[in-house]
Amino acid sequence: MRGVLTVRLLSMIAILAIISGYWLSIHESALTEEGDEDYNQLIMADSFESQDDNPEEEQNTDGAYEEREEGAGTTSTESDLPSNLIIGGASTLGSIMMGSILFEFVRVTVLMALFSPLLAKFNSTRDDLLTRGRILGYLEANAGIHFSALRDALGLANGVTAYHLQVLESKNQVISWRDGKLRRYAISSISREEIGLITSPIVGTRLAILDVLSDSGSLGLSGTEIRKRILISRQLLSHHLSELRKSDIIEPSSESKRPNWRISTRGKEILDSSRRLSKAEAAI
Question: Is the pTM of this model over 0.70?
Fold first, then answer.
């Protein structure tokens, strides 16, 4: 996955920036201490030689002071570099962690990028094969379930779930896609029609309309009857019925000008898919 490589690259850059900033700060403090020692020695030497009342030597000493002050001024911007590197690296890591907390698809990407390589170092065992078999079986029965619901249903840890899903995806046994803040999974042998039903679910008012029509049989219901049952305005119902009709999810039950509406075969498949997925996720 492209996102996994991106997270790994950003994390590596951030860690290198923090380490570089820390090393530069230590190196800079050591140089400062050496400069202070030289400066103290210069003062002591000047105090001993001041008794000679030599104006030329005093002028040379003043020049050394001025050179040191100018040198300190030119390194003021350089001294900010270590802190900028540390702040930049910490901010990048913090942004990645915050994104993994707020968005599930980011959390999955971070887990696969950072924790999967650690688990991959261990040899595949019989328990690993059993775990992957459980994941495949659950995805076959609950196609389109999202990461957190799958993890909780099987009682697995975040890192373990992400690792096995990544292995299954690399072997083309599992497919995944982003759905808003979530990432959903299904077995790779799923048909295109089934994927379309999962990736384009019917929700909200339109799902309520299909629920009502599914109980009406082949005779269907009129717009007035539907509106009374789900309690929405005539204009809003007309809009949803028009969109459902365009998608061949509902169909007229007669040829009259104001026919009853009934759910189509495609609409039944979509409704059944939405119900199964909702039950699987609600049961977690």
Answer: no
